[in-house]
Structures are given as C-alpha cells and as structure tokens.
Specification:
With 682 residues, the chain is of the alpha/beta class. The chain has 27 helices and 19 strands. Helix content is 46%, strand content 12%. It starts with a strand and ends in a 20-residue tail after the last helix. The relative contact order is 0.07.
Length: 682
C-alpha cells in the first residue's frame, strides 16, 4: 500500500494526517495527497486553519531518497510548501518521532511548530551529499541565525525537542495530547499568517567564524550549504529559494550523493541482519565483561553509557584497578565533550561492579570476553565458564582473528557462543561485527544484533572465518601496500596516495598508530601455516626486530619527534631499499594513481572472495565494514560501490595481477559477485 494523506475535521480546524509507514517518508504520493488536502482546506469556508500530523511513529522522517536517482515527479516538496505559505489560513506542524530533512522543511513552511517531548528535528541532508532543497538554508537562519544554522546544517545535526525549543526551531512542547494542543494552537492563529520566510535573519553569533570552522576539510556539498546559508537575508527570498533548489537538484544526481545514498541503504540493510531470521533476541539487562585491558574497559564503557549495569572481571587486582581508571577517564571525557552530563556519568560509574572471581557473572544474561588474544588462553576461559553461568547465557568473544568454533567446543552450550568484534576504542568506534560460529543459534545472533543496536553501534554479520570481514580484507590491502614497498614505493608515498584518495590515514601511518608489534605477534603465530611459496615481505618484521613498534616507541615506519608529527626516516628507507635488493627486485617509481589502483584492487579482490565464501551476507556489508571501521571514504560509498563505477576489464586485470604476485594461496575473486559488470549502476 502506498502512502496516503487523510483529512479529518476537528470543529473548524482540519487535521491532515500523513500516513506512510513505517517512517512517513515524504514520497510522491504523500506530496500529491498533501497538495490535495491543502486545496480542500482552502476551499472549505467552514475551516479556519489546518494541522499537519504524522500517523504512526513519526511526523516525516525525511524525503523518500529512493526517488533521488530519478527525475523527481511533480508535485515536488517546494510546491507543497508554497501552497501552505500562500494559503489564506494558518497551518501548525504537530511533530513527533522524527521531523528531519524534507519533513522539517515542511514544518518550516507552516505558521507554527509544536513538538512532542523527545522529537528529533533537523536538516541532516549533508550526510547524504546534498543540501536542504525545500527552503531549509533560507528559513532556518531566520529562526536561529546564520551561525547556528551553519553548525546545524553543515554538521547534519539532529536536535531534540527541548533544545529545539530553546533555539527557536519549534514554538512549543506539547505537555499533553499533541494533536489536541496543535489544534488549539491553530485555532489561536485563525485569521493570521506567520510565514518563516518573511522574517528577518537575526544577528546572532559570529557567522563568519562558524563558516570557517565548518569549512575545514569539508566536502564540496557542505561548502555549498554554507554558501546558501550566508545568502539568507542578503538576497530576496525568491532568489534564495530558487538558487538553493537548483544546487540541490545538481547535487542529488552527482556521484558523491549516489555513493552516500548507497552506504545509507547498505547500513540500513546490515542493521536487519539475516533477512529470514525469525528468532527473537533475549532481553539483556545485565552484562559481564571479562578482561579490563584497553578493549575490555572500552566495551564496559560503551555498555555503561547505554544505561546498563556491567560486572567487570579481572583476576589481576592491579589490572582491574587500571581498568576502572580507564572507564572513569572515558566517562569523564564524554562529559568534557558534551556527550554526557555529569549526573549521567556519575550514574554510569555506579552501574559498574568490578570483581576478581568469575562466579560474579552468574546473574548476567550476556558475557563478553576480552582477554589476551591467544587461542589457548581463551579456550581455557571458555572451559571455566560452564561452571558459573546459567545454561542460557550468551557468551561472546571479542577476538579479532581467532577461530570461534574452537572456543565454542569447550562449552556445553556452543549454540550460545557468538563473536562480538568491537573496534578500538570500543566506546567510540561504531562498527561491531556479529560473528556466526558453526553452532551459533538464531537466538544468540538476534541477541547480538539487538545489543549492537542498543549500544548505538553499526552491526554487520559475518561468518567465522579468519579475520572475519574487515581484518581479512584489510590484511590483503596491507599486503598489497607492503608489496609496493619492495617494488619501488616508500611509506610516505603510499600513505600520501591513499590519503589523497580519501582514506583518513594511509596504511603505514595506521600501523604505527596501532602498534607494529600486534601484527608481528599474529604473523609469528601463523608462521607455521604459511605457504613458503607465497610472497612474504620481511620489512615490517625487521622494523619490529629493531624495536620500532610505532608511535608508542617513537619509531616505526616513521619517526616521531617531540611534537608527535610523523617524519620520514632515512634508516627505514635504507632498510626498504636493502630488502628489494636482497630479493633482486628492480625498483620502479609508482605514481599515485598506480598505488591507488593496486591497493584498491587488493581490497576488491578479497571482497569478492569474502562474498563467494559466504563470510558476509551481502556485498553491501563489505562497504559498511570498510567505511565504518577502516577509514574508507564514506563519500565514495565503500570499495564495492567504487568497483561498480570502474572499467570492469581494467579492474579485473588489476585484481588478477595482485592474485598472481601474491603467490599460490591467493585466489582471484569473481567480481561479478560484487555487481562489477553492472556498468556503474546500482
């Protein structure tokens, strides 16, 4: 059933109900229905005004962005808003749930706005590579001033009702029944019009400073949003609205907006998990975390911030004390950054129960182990958990690489075991891989997904395979970059090329930040399983043997002075040149485009293998993982989306070259599984 608009009468006030479940997206049918309803209200002399209200859980959560790849059919939202503004009768927007994007712009076209407590309002279009296109850049500054409008629109900020009232984004908060209070407000406005577009732009804050702050490292569409906001009040309303709409129409069909829409839908699909899973998640009210190191403390912090109690276990009293300190520092940091109030942080700290005995976990419905990344250590822990945990407790491991089936085999209830692979810092990073072991039950997996959503994480399901999705693909990417060190590039050249592509950091800067010794330990553990015929780069091992573990030792691929700034190191470059000579490799200069193609083809090839082997549920999940956990540029949409925009033969040849130079253990992926032959079409 398509969305509908219903008109009801409450005395002399028309109540126009927007009914397009589940989130009342502003689709073509809704726009047509609104226009028809406005016309009916205007023609009915018995009606003195109107109220717009959403059915279900939202007002209008935004435009139906599925329409954005096509020519937008009339009536478009500006036409609907113009009809409200030109009507002789006043309209009140009754907001609840979400009033975002085109939904909030519709509200801005009304004469007043009243919101239920907890309503979220805002113009977050820049998160999708576009700007507000139905008056947002011209009307919001008239309510809050240019400086605040720049902060809100450029930052894609969503604002809760109470803050929105303080800012002037809404006129009132409904303390009782929203519809009744909106009707009363509309009746009080009878015979008057209070169009936002007619108001002057108030001089509040420093708009120039706000523009400079928002412009730093901003994408072009954000700069366009700022440009239009700065014109509000300086040009006629008619000209400002027309110019805004023209820019919106140009941006919505641009490659960047298409990429951002792709990742938006991919993230939404990943949130649902396995499509045909019917099992309901368990209710988790009390969590256990085993291990109080960096990851354990971060996981505990994330749970505490979500309002749940945590039992934190560490058998080492001193380590436990350090873990508590880490958690308290993280919560205090959240207060300093404005993400929590002091009272909320104090309450979160009170929900933490530190203990040294596993028996303290008996009342927990879900226990997450975050002990040392060693298979035997983890297996021993799993063996001991059966004695203290109820039979239905979900046990999750935070392992990055290790075989979860081997851990699950140590328990009497392997169906309760899943992986919850957090990314560091666990209380900040959004990505959470939910890993399905061989015997993991649907209930356990559904519970993992529900917990991820409760923590505000972006979940992605993965099968139990070495490195799961992200680390496996990143290992191929890192290998390709290490090959390039031997073939002719230097660390700063590889990092610069990939940062120019859009990665937040190049691979060697990332290695120095995370610590070279971590990957070194993993390589040594896997050394016995490595095929001697595979290409292996010894450069990172030699750096570790020299005690160069990255930033924490002041030296890695780069050296770090007192300022902490990374600098080229002649010692490292000499070591790299010697490694090439030792293998008889004739070094050649590599251009930035060649570096980018070699690195990205390695990612794409491994992504195809991950899809082929069923490690991921869908190709789009690869994009979600790489964007949210590995610094892949969001505005490019992820490696799968990027691959679909490339020449298939060129990309396939680059993947084949990577597989060939890697050695016999590396297979060539079937790029058709990623949709690469779709000639750039989603």
């Amino acid at each position: 059933m398509t969305g509908q608009v219903h008109l009801q009468r409450d005395g002399d006030i028309a109540v126009v109900i927007i009914d397009n479940p589940p989130v009342n997206a502003g689709s073509h049918d809704i726009r047509k229905g609104l226009l028809a309803a406005i016309d009916e209200v205007e023609r009915d002399e018995r009606l003195a005004g109107g109220v717009l209200v959403g059915a279900g859980r939202s007002f209008i959560s935004g435009s139906d962005i599925r329409e954005f790849d096509l020519p937008l059919a009339p009536p478009q939202m500006p036409q609907v808003i113009a009809a409200i503004e030109s009507a002789s009768k006043p309209y009140v927007a009754a907001l609840h749930g979400a009033a975002l994007g085109g939904g909030y712009e519709l509200a801005l076209g009304c004469d007043a706005r009243i919101a239920a407590p907890g309503t979220m309002v805002g113009l977050p279009e820049t998160a999708l590579g576009i700007i507000p296109g139905a008056g947002g850049t011209q009307k919001l500054p008239r309510l809050v001033g240019q400086a605040e409008a720049i902060r809100l629109i450029a930052g894609a900020v969503r604002v809760e009702a109470r803050e929105a009232l303080a800012l002037g984004m809404v006129d009132a908060i409904a303390e009782g029944d929203l519809r009744e209070e909106a009707v009363k407000m509309a009746r009080g406005l009878a015979g008057t019009k209070r169009r936002v577009i007619d108001r002057p732009v108030p001089e509040r804050g420093d708009a120039e400073a706000a523009a400079q702050r928002a412009s730093r490292r901003a994408r072009p569409h954000v700069l366009e949003a700022i440009r239009h906001i700065r014109k509000a009040g300086a040009v006629s309303a008619e000209d400002g609205l027309a110019a805004e709409r023209q820019t919106f129409q140009e941006l919505r069909v641009a490659p960047e907006a298409k990429a951002l829409r792709h990742i938006f839908f991919a993230e939404r699909e990943a949130l649902r998990g396995k499509p045909d899973r019917k099992a309901k998640p368990l209710s988790v009210t009390r969590f256990g975390v085993i291990g109080s190191g960096t990851m354990g403390a971060g996981i505990a912090t994330a749970i505490l911030q979500a309002g749940k109690p945590v039992v934190l276990i560490d058998t080492n009293v001193e380590a436990l004390a350090r873990g508590i300190e880490r958690i308290e520092q993280a919560l205090d940091g959240a207060v300093a950054r404005g993400r929590m109030s002091a009272d909320e942080a104090r309450e979160a700290k009170a929900r933490l129960t530190p203990q040294t005995e596993l028996a303290a976990l008996a009342a927990c419905e879900l226990v997450i182990e975050a002990v040392f990344e060693d298979q035997e250590v983890k297996r021993a822990l799993f063996r001991s958990l059966d004695a203290v945990l109820p039979a239905n407790t979900i046990i999750a491991t935070n392992t990055s690489y290790l075989d979860i089936d081997r851990m699950a085999a140590e328990t009497a209830h392997p169906e309760n075991v899943i992986g919850l692979h957090f990314f560091s810092p666990a209380h900040i990073m959004k990505l959470l891989e939910i890993v399905r072991a061989e015997k993991s039950s649907d209930v356990a997996m559904a519970t993992g997904l529900a917990v991820a959503r409760m923590l505000g994480k972006q979940p992605v399901e993965a099968a139990n395979a070495f490195g799961f999705i992200g680390n496996r693909i990143y290992a191929a990417y890192r290998a390709s970059c290490e090959f390039m060190l031997e073939d002719g590039a230097l660390p700063h050249e590889v990092d610069a090329a990939l940062e120019a592509f859009g990665f937040s950091m190049g691979p060697f800067a990332v290695a120095d930040l995370s610590g070279l010794d971590i990957a070194w330990n993993m390589r040594r553990q896997k050394a016995a399983d490595r095929n001697p015929a595979d290409r292996y780069v010894h450069i990172p091992d030699r750096l570790c043997e020299a005690g160069r573990f990255g930033r924490k030792t002041g030296e890695g691929y780069y050296r770090y002075g007192d300022s902490g700034k990374r600098e080229r190191d002649p010692k490292v470059e000499a070591l790299i040149l010697a490694a090439s000579a030792e293998k008889g490799i004739s070094r050649k200069d590599l251009s930035a485009p060649e570096i980018q193609l070699r690195a990205l083809s390695a990612i794409v090839n491994e992504a195809a293998l991950v899809v082929e082997e069923g490690v991921t549920l869908r190709p789009g999940d690869v994009d979600v993982v790489l964007v949210n956990g590995y610094g892949f540029p969001r505005w490019i949409g992820g490696p799968v989306h990027w691959a679909r925009q490339q020449n298939p033969e060129t990309l396939r040849a680059a993947c084949a070259r990577f597989a060939d130079i890697s050695g016999p253990s590396r297979k060539l992926g079937d790029l058709r599984l990623l949709g690469v032959d779709r000639e750039g079409k989603e």
